[in-house]
Amino acid sequence: MSERPFIIRISSLSKHYTMGDQLVKALDKIDLDFRENDYAAIMGPSGSGKSTLMNILGCLDTPTAGRYELNGQNVAEMDDDELARVRNREIGFVFQTFNLLPRLDCLRNVELPLIYAGVSPEERLERSRKALEEVGLGDRIDHKPGELSGGQTQRVAIARALVNHPSIILADEPTGNLDTATSRDIMDIFGRLSDAGNTIILITHEEEIARFTRRIIRLRDGRIESDSAP
Amino acid sequence: MTLSIRETVMQAATSLAVNKLRSALTTLGVAVGVFSIIAVMTALDAVDRSIATGLSSLGANTFQIQKNPATVFGGGHNRNLYANRKDITWQEAQLFKKYMEERARNIGFIITSQAAQASYGNEITNPDVTLTGGDESFAPANGLDVIAGRNLNDGDLRYASDTAILGSDVAAYLFQQGQNPVGKQIRVNGKVYTVIGVFSKKGAAFGQSQDNFVLIPITRYLDEVNETSSISITVEATSQKSYRQTIDRAIGAMRLARGLTVKKANDFEIRTNESLVESFRDIQNIVGTGAFIISFMALLTAGVGIMNIMLVSVTERTREIGVRMSVGAPRRTILEQFLVEALLLSLGGGALGIVAGAGAGNLVALQFNLPVILPWVWIVVSLLVCSVIGISFGLFPAWKASRLDPVTALRAAR
């Protein structure tokens, strides 16, 4: 298994900021690697730094120190435009609150990353439709997010994360707003995506959800407490 | 990497369509500004074209001497200057004619009063007939023919006879089809006149009929109409070549007739077709400048409105901006998107204003029976100004949107 190439290599990564007159070490000298086709859960109590790690992994935020290599590129030194490009090409986000644009229908939501990737309208349509079919929503493409159930909405968000074939899928509490049965459906989809070769990192505080993955990383006070199979 | 223009415009249009009322109201501000300039410019253009024909009211090689210019601009000093001028009297007019000797083909005298009422039997006109005192040269000087009966002659003038020639509108109003007005007795302001002729039709200028008048001998007019008013002298030069010379001669003759010493300035005006057009151009410039200033103010206000709405929009859509950034929208693309939205608002308003303004302006053109007029220059100027307004007032909100931190934006309340 360890022959799989590295996708993410993080070494001595820190994110410090001051809140009032207090120095907060959201992440403190973390070393962490992910290989292709990893399926990992990041766990930890609130304030443990897992959201900060997620934002840095997703190139939404930059570390204050350390090295973050994504597919061999040092992301920590990238400027805004390069980070936008990486978010577009390498990363697919799934959020707890779905974060779909409410006035666009499913198809338009899913094609959003492709628009910024400069893909032609015909190809966008084709690929977005396919992504929606992959998550079992091929018949809902012209629905607006408001017309869908929570589970369906999250599946649209997953389709959006998939559509540009990213290197990693980052899911931030993807089942946090869903009931148990629906959560299971969503985790089934992640399981299938993992089986298909995708690299998936998700953040959760639910043990049952984390058990669907193959690797659990526990954070506490900005440091890694444990990193093991469930 | 940035989006294609089409893509950006589509996205912007979709966003604007979400808040239809808000977008429409914002657009309205721009529309009002553009409307005023386009409407005024179209109307002025219409009047301008009508002038080309209508204002050439004087016949060929003909000019007029009057107490005052056609229009007076400027402050009190100018107004007083003209107000203090003496009327041109019959004696002065006669002296003028004498001094001109035979240098002109024709010299005519006219004096007019508005708001007369003519009647024949039971037919009574509105009290808006122009009563004109004149002589036999009135017809040629005004480009009119006597189509029935005869023109005034020396005898009518000498004896101040109670004769009248009708403008074609008055003739048509008082006399049924087929009835010959010549020889009939009509009343104008209660006084009886015998109709000796009818003039050909001249048509309208400035939307006003030029045929709604009754001509009587000027001598009769001076006897009978108790209004002190100034005589206009119409001079027809012998040829196009001698036109300028004749004007110079006339100025000299008039100074003499008015008894002006060398040091005194002319206390009368020479009106030519060109001077009429010129004085209209003055009006055009003043009205045009006024409209431009008003439009500019309105557009500035509209620009502030656009900025306001765009700032609200950026705040409302903070989450959307975060989402777009998370899927890879570069800051520049976000900036472009909001900028294009502002631009669409202002250009949409501009287009609306142009359509409404050209429509309103062409109502004026309709009055002059002119074909549809499109003030292309002003349309282009308006669109350019709208673009500048949209971009300059949209820039700050768009910049604000593009500078949002993605993490914070994603956390914003929807």
Automatic annotation (TrEMBL), chain A:
Key words, A-Z: ATP-binding, Nucleotide-binding, Transport
CDD domains xref list: ABC_MJ0796_LolCDE_FtsE (cd03255)
GO molecular function, one term: ATP hydrolysis activity
UniProt cross-references to Pfam families, sorted A to Z: ABC_tran
Gene3D superfamilies documented for this protein: P-loop containing nucleotide triphosphate hydrolases
Spans traversing the lipid bilayer: none
Domain ABC transporter positions: 8-230
GO cellular component terms given for this protein: membrane protein complex; plasma membrane
Similarity annotation: Belongs to the ABC transporter superfamily. Macrolide exporter (TC 3.A.1.122) family.
PANTHER family: ABC TRANSPORTER ABCH.1, IMPORT ATP-BINDING PROTEIN
Name of the protein in question: ABC transporter ATP-binding protein
Organism in which the protein naturally occurs: Chlorobaculum thiosulfatiphilum
Automatic annotation (TrEMBL), chain B:
Subcellular location: Cell membrane
Gene Ontology cellular component list: plasma membrane
Membrane-spanning parts: 21-44, 291-314, 334-356, 376-396
InterPro entries: ABC3_permease_C, MacB_PCD, Macrolide_Exporter_MacB
Membrane-topology annotation of the record: Multi-pass membrane protein
Domain ABC3 transporter permease C-terminal: 292-406
Domain of life: Bacteria
Record-annotated MacB-like periplasmic core domain positions: 23-249
Protein name: FtsX-like permease family protein
Lineage of the organism: Bacteria, Pseudomonadati, Chlorobiota, Chlorobiia, Chlorobiales
